[in-house]
User: Fold this.
Amino acid sequence: PAASSYLPLAGSDDPFRIEIGEKGWTLPFFEDFEDSSLFDLGWVNVWHGFGGYPWQITDYQVYEGEYAVVHYRGIEDSDPMDDWMVSPALDFSAESSVQVNWRELGVSISDLEAGLYVSTGSRDPGDGDFVLAAPLVPGSSGEWERASVVNLTPWAGEPVVYLAWRYQGQNSGDWYLDDVHVRTLGCD
Assistant:
């Protein structure tokens, strides 16, 4: 008996491939980092340059709960760090206005270039789809503070949006984040 095959059309010489699009979390979105791994929470850590101190979960300094996320300062004589912490895909398609805010704690912050970036394309910052939504200036008081609201309305209506916190520096201080809220833009 003969066997019939319908896909792939050219048999093994033409591998079958299906593109699967990412489905974003609908809003409101809240992340309190209550897990031992960013990966398990759906976040991605990407680093360019010195890769020894990427974003990580910590129980050392927290705003609420048992865990927060931190980027440690690194070593004084090391190469500069350029590290990105990228959110899971978020779905802004049902929104006409969007905001994000969070809690943060800065310790010995100096010469840190920080920013919040947005991509509606690739999740990998190396692909060049991320654009700066807002430069960030983490406080250095050593106390937890509420970060200023960042208006994400230019990306309202998009079905897949990635947010990324970027840490650029060498020995630029410890930056802790907790309780990230993404929701409809409201009164502050």
